[in-house]
Structure formats: C-alpha cells, structure tokens
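<instruction>
Derive structure tokens from the sequence
<data>
Labelled lines for chain and fold
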Amino acid sequence: MSFDFNTCNEEQVKAIKHFEGPLLILAGAGSGKTRVLTHRIAYLIDEYCVSPYHIMALTFTNKAANEMRERVDKIVDFGAEAITVGTFHSICVRILRRYIDRLGYDRSFNIYDADDQKSLMKDIIKRRNLDPKKFKERTFLSAISNQKNILKTPKEYKAEVAKEFNKRIYGDIYEDYQNRLEQNNALDFDDLIMLTVKLFEENPDVLDMYQERYQFLMVDEYQDTNHAQFRLIHLLAKKYGNLCVVGDDDQSIYKFRGANISNILDFEKFFPGTEVIKLEQNYRSTKHILDAANNVIANNTHRKAKALWTDKGEGEPIKHVIYFNEYEEAAGVADDISHKISQNGCSYKDFAILYRTNAQSRPFEEKLVLEGIPYRIVGAINFYSRKEIKDLLCYLKTVNNPSDDISVKRIINIPRRGIGAASISRISEYAELHGISFYDALKDVDYIDGCSRAARGINSFVGLIENAKKIAESPSCSLIELFDYITEVTGYIKDLENEDSVEAESRLENIESLINKIKQYEDDMENLTDEEATLNGLLENIALISDIDNVSEDTEQVLLMTLHSSKGLEFPNVYICGMEDGIFPSGQSMYNLSDEDLQEERRLCYVGITRAMETLTITSARQRMRNGETCFNPPSRFINEIPRHLLTEKNNSGMPTSSSSSFTDLSSFGASQSKKPRNKYFSTKPMTMDNNPFIKKGADLASSSKPDYDVGDKVYHIKFGTGTVTSMKQLDSGDYEVGVEFSKSGPRKLRSSFAKLLKQE
C-alpha cells in the first residue's frame, strides 16, 4: 500500500515508522491511537517486510478488536487474515484450547460467567455451613479475583493468611473454589490469563513457539493491564523485545478490577531502551472541553505530563446546572435533550447520560419514559443472563462438557421431570463420595438409595444429553440442528407458546435472537475464517461478549451508563450527572481519603469530560435520596478545578447561591491527606439536614411568609405527583410542616421550604 502521511500529525508519523525495540505511545483521549496502531501494522508489513503471521495486536474489548480488525483489513493489501487481532481473553482461550491438557484440564472446558461463579460459590458456602448473611459470595469472589490478578495460587494465599484468623477462611474458600472449577473442567475469566502464564512458565517449548510466532506485539489500552496481563506480555515479548504499547495513564480507572497504573508509568524501567512518543492532538472535542479536562487532570501528581489540544475551535462553554433534587435533575436533562432534538436537528444517538453509580439511573429512566424518549441502559441485565437464554445455553454447555456440575444442576429439572431437591442432594453426596462428576453420578441413579422416584426423570435427562452429544459429534449436523433438537425434546419453546402471555412472548423473542446468534456464528466461521464452526467455539464466542460490545452507534436511543462504562466511547452531547461531593468523587473516596483513591476518581472525571465532542453539561442537586435518607452534598470539588471562564452556571434549584460563586471552595481539601479530611465539615457519615454545614437551617432557610396553598388545596410534587393538603403546622423555625394525601403515594409530611409544592388551580 502507499502511505499518505499528509493526514497524520508529526508524532503519529513517528509512531507509525518506529521499527524494532520497545515503544510507549502515550495517546491522549481522541488522539487517533487506533489509526496509528493499524497504520503501524501496515507499515511493518509494507516497508519492513515483516510477515503478517508474526504480528499480534491485543486489546480489552471485542468492540475495539473488531474495529481494529476492520481497519487492518482495509489498509493491508495482502495477508491481513494472518495478523492476530483479539482481546487478552480470546487469545488466551485459543492458546489454552490447544495446550491446556498439559495443566491437567480437558480441552473441552467451559468458561464460567459471573452467574456461574456465584452459583458455585453459594454451593461452597452452603457445604461449609457458613451463614450466607455474614459470608457473601460476592466478597469471596472479589478476593479470589484479586489474588488471581497478581498470580497468587490458593496454596500461596493460604500460607500468607494462615496466621490471620479473620482472613484464614478466604484462603480455604479460594482452595475449595479452585478445586471445584478443576473438577467441573471449567475456568473463570481470571483463569484464562493466569493459566496461560502458568502454561508458558512451565512449558518453555510452548512459550518459545509463541515467541517465534508473535515477534511483533502491540497492546492497546495498556494502562488497564493488571499484573497477570503484564506478566503475559512480558513473557511473549522477552525474546525479541519488539513491544509497542499504547495507553493513557490519565485514563487508568480500573483499579477495582486489578489494573495497575505502574505498568504504564514505569514502562521504561521494565523495558530499557524504550522510545516514548506523546499523541496530544485531539480530533474529537472542542477547545473548551479539552481545556476543562486538562485543568482537572493537572491536579493529579502521579502521572506523565501531557496536555490535549485541538484545532477544532473553542465551541460552546461547559454548562453547570444546579437542581433542587434528582427528579428535577432528570427532568432538566430530558427537557434539554428534547429541545436539542426539536431545535437543533440532533438524533437520540447523539446523547449520553453518565453517572457515577448505577443507582442514579432510575429518575432518568422514569422521566425519559414520560417524555417518550427512547433510551438504553448500558450495564443492565445482560442478554445472556436472562433465564430462558441461560437455560438453553446450559444445555449446550452440558453437551459440550458434562463435567460442568453447575450447568447440569441448573437444567436437570427444566422442564420439570419430578426430580426433587432431596434426590439432587443424594446424588451430589454420591458423586463426592466416589470422586466423580454429578452427571456421571446421574448415570448410576438406579444404585443410589432414595432416588427411585426420580430415576425415570433422571434417565430421561441423561438420554437426552447422550443423544445430543452424538448429534454434536456428527460432522453432518450443524449447531442449529443441535439447538433445534434440544428445544424440541425438552418442549421449551412449545411450553412458552402454550403459556400465551406477554412475558412468554418476550422470552420467545429472546430465544429467536439466540437462534440468530448461532446462525450468525456459523455463517461467520464459514465466510470469514478457514476454521470450522464448533460448539466449543460458539460457547467461547458468547462467553467473551461484554455489554459494551453490544452498543450500536446507529441505534436511535439515548444511552445511560456509568462513567466506567463510557470509556472508549464518544458522543456529540454528554451529561455528567450527580456531580456532588459524596457522589462524585464517591463517598468512599472522600471519607477514606487517600491520595491514590482521589486521583483515580479525578481520572474518572477526566474520562467523562473527554467523551464529549460538542457540548458538555454538568449537573448537581441540592438534595438527593440515598438509602432512604435525604442527603445534602456540595457541588463536586472537580467542578472547582475547571476555570470559571470555561463555565456557564445556572441555578435551577430555587435556592440562593453566593454572589461570588455557586460553588463551595474545596480546592484545599487536600490530596495529601491520606486518612482524615482536613476540612472540619466532612465526616464519615452521609450529609443530612442535621449535619450538613453547607445548607442553611431553620428560619434562615424557611420562607417568612405562609405558603400560597392551604388545607384542602390541590398541590403537585415533583416526585409524589398530585395530592391534597390535609394539614399545615408552623414550626418553631418558621418553616411549615405540610401534610399531603397523594393520590399514588399516600399520606406524606413534608417541609414547605424543601417540598416545593405547586398549587394546582
């Protein structure tokens, strides 16, 4: 191919033309890193005569991998199909399918998703007779994931916590969990990386083969790598040293998943002789947006210096709007979207509403529904976690790997076969006693005491699975035919059709989507690769799909998502909502304040700001319900870090603000404080009416005059709707306590100064 470098800036050209040795590309948000990576791959092939077979590009999501693959295919004239492009997990699955038998596993292993892991952990907790209210499966799974991310085995972890009474149970549970995974011939997502590293370290011949295969290695989003991923990359690149990583330390926001920002900050130490190239020209956002992002992130000290710039023009100022509560906040955002749609010719897909936690989404959902605005929540129930999909996938998993006890137990009585909990318990005990899988124990049901009544149903189930295995193994049968056999024999689809309800209709539509997915996988394998469509491959493909992979840029919907989920996306119009101390930065980061935590929260703010292309609106609320209690938080300290000339401020809260600024100055609330906040106004408790120093109380807040409504009047409340005033009582503070009988919410007692009741004519 011929390279047109006129469309690239000087630093991009340097990165593209780099040949051998380690290269660190510090790529700011919207700086064209994917273009640089794909053109660098093409340049290696075209100018340096590197075989496509020797190139691998790693990233974190299927969405990013598919985008990179499409771009590579367009610009590489010959041999593009030989280039390996994929996620860490998909590449590791491919390696393990070939060599995992060297670690004692069967190659037909299943991959457990979050639901499977929880089911397995619940069973372990139950077997140990632990109190499930005290010992949560999520807590154990998080601890285990942390250990796997640093490549610590159960044996090593048990030795570490042996003398710590409170942690000793975690070592035992980790050991149980890993043993059960091995018995079920199953891996969780952390195992995919950890076991590949183990395979390489214990089998030098396998490592050498892959080092020879991948002589040029490129890694995208390097700031998100954990220790296990770092070790994997280090092993693969050690022989030739041709490692190119692209990342932005200012966008390192996944510490809670094990990401280690030191991997990118200390890259030059790990790989001596590194060339460092900074991509600072942004092609996404306006100057106002970038200046805001630069000023916020400049308050972090643990970073590599860089500043985004653009030649797109200044653009609109950033808007900061203060609302009275979260319901008015949602209404204001919905109204603004409607206005931009009708007046500016925008599309729904041009908008994203971002927030710190999923709990903030409900008021927005309610308001968008009322306004008739189509939306989608990214991070809601995953398609593959829905009951009907999970059931049918567990049938496929059982056919693929009968040793998977979790899948077998889920479907053994779906549809009902007269197999009760007592029979399942006896069979489980028999399996454990004889050291066999639950499925193999089912085959011995006639010899297990107390299972005679369930024997007929169990034998029917085993017969179904054995026949399905024969179909799966037949070269002449497709995956669709296997799926049709399972749904036909089980009567799963027929039962839903007979149910004849709206819910059943929805579930049938989901099953139809699953059928389409299976057909698409078979077509892709036939038309796009030289590989055969297999049940193993289908289940891998489904297991490795993340929620963000399903975000379509063409669907006419407003997207709602957490700030963490927004990384890698861009939108013309962005709303960052709930910008209040205690919400964002989160209360945990504030009250257990450490320099590291606060800097990560600030990086998250930087990510949110840089999602915006044309307009950015930041919102806060004077009061917000949290855990059933009304809390009052000041605007986020991050807003204070944006220069005033970049902002337009609007107070829609109906409450007075300072004449000089609508913000409480928290700029001195120090990142240097590691344990306890310096500001006397902050405590470890949520701010409420009684303990918030930023809210005026009593007579200072209340109106000196009686409200314009009286007993018997109809009034409207933003949250509770329409109601009738039943009582009014003046308090010592001068405020009024108002009793209202709401038509939908029932009786409520509210303070007039906060309720903002509107009299209805």
User: Anything to note?
Assistant: The chain has a mean pLDDT of 87. Residues 377 and 560 are 5 Å apart (CA to CA). The longest helix spans residues 502-528.
